[in-house]
Amino acid sequence: MQRAFMKSRPLRLALAALLLGGATQLAAKPLVVCTEASPEGFDIVQYTTAVTADASAETVFNRLVDFKPGTTEIQPALAERWDISADGLTYTFHLRQGVKFHTTDYFKPTRDFNADDVLWSLNRQLDPNHPWHDKTSVGYPYFESMGFKELLKSVSKADAHTVVITLTRPEAPFLRDMAMGFTSIYSAEYGDQLLKAGKTAELNSKPIGTGPFIFQRYNKDAQVRFKPNPDYFRGKPPADALVFAIATDSNVRLQKLRANECQVALYPKPDDVPSIKQDPKLKVEEIEALVTGYISMNTEHKYLSDVRVRKAINMAFDRQTHVDQLFGKGNALVGVNPYPPTMIGYNNENRNPPRDLAKARQLLNEAGVPPGTVLTLFTRNGGGPTNPNPRLSAEMLQADLKQIGLKLDIRVMEWAEMLRRAKKGEADLVSAGWAGDNGDPDNFLSPLLSCDAVKSGENYARWCNPKFQELISRAREVIDNDERARLYNEALKVYDDEQPWISMAHPKMFTTMRDNVEGYVISPLTNNNFATTKVK
Amino acid sequence: MTSPIPNSVTPASPVDQSLLYPSPYKEFWQAFARNKGAVMGLAFMCLVVFCALFAPWVAPHDPSEQYRDFLLTPPVWLEGGSWQFILGTDELGRDLLSRLIQGARLSLLIGLSSVVMSLIPGILLGLLAGFFPQLLGPSIMRLMDVMLALPSLLLAVAIVAILGPGLINTVIAIAIVSLPSYVRLTRAAVMGELNRDYVTAARLAGAGLPRLMFVTVLPNCMAPLIVQATLSFSSAILDAAALGFLGLGVQPPTPEWGTMLASARDYIERAWWVVSLPGLTILLSVLAINLMGDGLRDALDPKLKNAA
Amino acid sequence: MLSFIARRLGLLIPTFFGITLLTFALIRLIPGDPVEVMMGERRVDPEMHAQAMERLGLNKPLPAQYLDYVGKLAQGDLGESLRTRESVWHEFLTLFPATLELAFAALLFAGIVGLLAGVIAALKRGSLFDHGVMGISLAGYSMPIFWWGLILIMFFSVSLGWTPVSGRIDLLYDIEPKTGFMLIDTLLSDEEGAFKDALMHLILPAIVLGTIPLAVIARMTRSSMLEVLREDYIRTARAKGLSPARVVFVHGLRNALIPVLTVFGLQVGTLLAGAVLTETIFSWPGIGKWLIEAIGARDYPVVQNGILLIACLVILVNFVVDILYGLANPRIRHQR
């Protein structure tokens, strides 16, 4: 394919090697990763997108605890060990010693990492009196939406290497939450330096952390460059340089991968995966990720409030064809429960109803739905990992519903407008998705199906079931894993009886790379970490 | 074109005057027909209009029908194609030919309505600006300058973002964006005509302002406006396609040519026909309209008759 | 002459204010606010929302916000992006050279090829070449630019492999953005082969972006040339026995170029608009992409001031073209 282009490359590299003196910056084996969007900034606590997290939380920063690569289990990171009080209200973290912050031309640390840095990072978001609390444009989205403002009673230090966090109530997922990007640990010294110089905006453009990679440069909308951190507490990363190349089109990412312009290409189109697997120079890592795609049904709607109507729609939806067509055969699990099978409490007895158009029409008749009833479906414009092509998806459902006498009015909207209107409950159906952040079922169920979430809007189904709510509230506080699994199992039975959603799919996540790339472990949480990755 | 010379007059003349002075329509047609390209354009447009008018009967299949067993079949002349789907099917198994035919309706509708929507206010504003050069002229022209200074695509995107996506809002956005050129053209033509003798004569004869505007002056300014209208028609189709490409156009499953292109982008390598054919259709239609526009301009504007 | 310039300048001021008002009104009319966009599907705490809106100054009544905005503008403060907190001016300066480089290359391509084609077509009027040029240029501005780009990529990059697929330069090169113009920066850096690589990346996008201006310039040159060639003074020059080349290029072209000049100026506006689509297809990190994303994220300062800056540029170019045209054509200078 790219013959002419390839021929000159070895020549160019040879010339470059000959001229290798101090002057050239042509790194010997940089690791170039093609991503799909520009990072919004590097002050990770201000942002929610996965791309921004990849470029900041996974490179420049660490947290007190981490997820073991490829899993959702917790391992020590900046905290070596921790104690949890019997009532589940006090967490004491014993910090790792000898961890160094990055040294760059804009900051030179005078001390190692200690408790002050943890206090700075967390209190910044918690305490309105912290000098940095207001130094953000929009706020701290994850901190707020995870309810940490109400959950955290205090964050204090017992000594220079021990931090004590007290909660207002027991919270089973708390430790997992502390592994998420928004609890990243910043350098308090750097914060003070910037504050004194009056350059607080630079926290977002010139980050400092303890992580595996040191920030070098961001060419806006083009590339982000990092160099490995020689003092990283887990060992210097094997890559000589890390470059994120921003290519918004998935076809372009694939083409660059084939041309070896990128060694890793993130977010490939599921349709391309089979042909990539057949290419001997490329390989694909895949995992059943903690994501779910669904279509919510507004239970406050005149007809959709009747569970028979919802069951009828679920019966008419040709789920298997839909999943096969949208993601490609074998690239996604057909969704049954709101979250995928790898998390605790997954109810194996729940089943999707078999496709039965006649029965569906009968149910609609019983519920008194006149034929030709119009239902609106709000969907966003562009695709994402939970749904690569929302339009396609919507059109397939439209054809299915036509066969049982329901007319689907598709409204493709701009992202922001859709969010606002869906949250207000203006839609009958909403095509949406959710990616888990920490591997805990509560992370799926509370934001999407709880009664609180109806009030704040992101429960698009506007479904508030007291039994369900009680079960998940209890499961959130109980620490014993088996008890929690039992509670979630029961809650999912309630979900199955009521069917507030058209469950669609749990897509697999794929990362494509050259076959000489080693040491990359794909994460079920859709994060991408390259601390141990190298190009052979 | 100057005002049509009425076929005078003398009823008792033995020689039929119409033989010596062909009717203006015939004269126009002869001038137009001399341009081969324009005639070809007209022929193609007639085909498109025919498809648009008789789409439900001409199209072999229902454009929204999804043949789930025939996803992405190639056109009939490629391996794997079949006569059932002459131009192949798209990613949902819908017949491409039927969608293109149905899409003709939409594109013509968009072109026509956006032209009308911007022509009428455009002419009005231009007339006002020309007739009141001290009072209304400057403010109208400044407003038009402002609109022209903004990149048209961004302006259209912003308008659609405000109004929400959909067919009517797309048309409104395109109409607003094409408004300034009509205003400018009308004003320039009006100001050119206002100094002429026949206008002064009409004024002296006691013609009121509306009559002066619409009956006396406007018909003589129509030539450049007609040409601009054909140009706008073609760029309306292109703008609608661009908005559709950016995802801001008509709602699914309506088969608009530009939206078809947008969703086809993912299939460049696997199914090139889903990309090429809608684009080719846009190209041919717009080309045909532009050829017609060229022919119109040549036929209507005597100055350019000998130059081009 | 001076009064002509002064008159033109005077007209710019109300236009400028009109633009600020229009962009302000437009972006505020779009439903949704930056805080909602930022939170995405997550819960928006009403208290936090209110606090954030106050911090951003968005809770004041709209006229007050407009006055704030214009006041800051008068002091030369273009504000900060709500998303990245970088100064809008700084972001613009970082991204604009990319668009400018592309537009410049496109205009160069369109100008050189267009002028040549137009002149030759006029000289060989009625010939196959003439019809070919007219046909191709008509096709040129009849086609959707994004489709044309996709077709060219399919052909030249994917199938033939002659040109790279996207971006401004191969990622192996770490070029420091000293000026922002990749061609200049690669020459300034000491990386071997970087300049050629940057040039290869520029070719296809420039062709795609320059196709429409090329068509327009070719046609305009041709018809203008034809008109000029019919003039008496050309006949005289020929009669005097001057060589055909001299007649065409020295006497004819000079006068034929005047209307072409105005067209050139008008194309700048088209180029900046077309750049949006071209940048999307070729992943070219310029201002088109920046603005479209900012509209989606409701990043008000970026949208308002970004569009303002582009509009000012377009007005400036039109102003210069007006002046030049007035210089060249005395009749315009002394108009009402």
Report on the architecture of this protein.
The complex is a heterotrimer of chains A (536), B (308) and C (336). Helix content of chain A is 32%, strand content 22%. Chain A has helices spanning 3-18, 50-55, 115-126, 141-145, 148-151, 174-177, 188-197, 202-205, 250-258, 273-278, 307-316, 319-327, 357-367, 390-402, 415-424, 442-449, 451-456, 466-477, 481-498, and strands at 30-35, 65-67, 74-76, 79-84, 90-95, 152-159, 162-167, 213-219, 223-228, 241-246, 264-266, 282-288, 291-297, 332-334, 373-380, 406-413, 429-435, 501-514, 517-518, 534-535. The relative contact order of chain B is 0.14. In chain B, helix 3 crosses helix 5 (96-131), helix 5 (96-131) packs antiparallel against helix 10 (209-245) and helix 6 packs across helix 8 (167-194). Chain C has 14 helices and no strands. Chain C has helices at 2-29, 34-39, 46-55, 62-74, 88-123, 128-140, 145-159, 182-188, 194-229, 232-240, 244-282, 287-297, 300-328, 330-333. In chain C, helix 7 (145-159) packs across helix 9 (194-229). Chains in contact: A-B, A-C, B-C. The interface between A and B is medium-sized, with 24 and 21 residues.
Offer a few descriptive terms:
heterotrimer; A: 536 residues; alpha+beta; 4-stranded antiparallel β-sheet; 19 helices; disordered N terminus; C: 336 residues; mainly alpha; globular
Topology:
The complex is a heterotrimer of chains A (536), B (308) and C (336).
Chain A: H1 3-18, E1 30-35, H2 50-55, E2 65-67, E3 74-76, E4 79-84, E5 90-95, H3 115-126, H4 141-145, H5 148-151, E6 152-159, E7 162-167, H6 174-177, H7 188-197, H8 202-205, E8 213-219, E9 223-228, E10 241-246, H9 250-258, E11 264-266, H10 273-278, E12 282-288, E13 291-297, H11 307-316, H12 319-327, E14 332-334, H13 357-367, E15 373-380, H14 390-402, E16 406-413, H15 415-424, E17 429-435, H16 442-449, H17 451-456, H18 466-477, H19 481-498, E18 501-514, E19 517-518, E20 534-535
Parallel strand pairs in A: 1-10, 1-11, 15-16, 15-17
Antiparallel strand pairs in A: 2-3, 4-5, 5-7, 6-7, 8-9, 9-10, 11-18, 12-18, 13-17, 13-18, 14-18, 19-20
Helix pairs in contact in A: 11-13, 16-18, 18-19
Chain B: H1 17-20, H2 24-34, H3 36-53, H4 55-58, H5 96-131, H6 137-149, H7 152-163, H8 167-194, H9 197-204, H10 209-245, H11 257-264, H12 272-300, H13 302-305
Chain C: H1 2-29, H2 34-39, H3 46-55, H4 62-74, H5 88-123, H6 128-140, H7 145-159, H8 182-188, H9 194-229, H10 232-240, H11 244-282, H12 287-297, H13 300-328, H14 330-333
Helix pairs in contact in C: 1-13, 5-6, 5-9, 5-11, 6-9, 7-9, 7-11, 8-9, 9-11, 10-11, 11-12, 11-13, 12-13
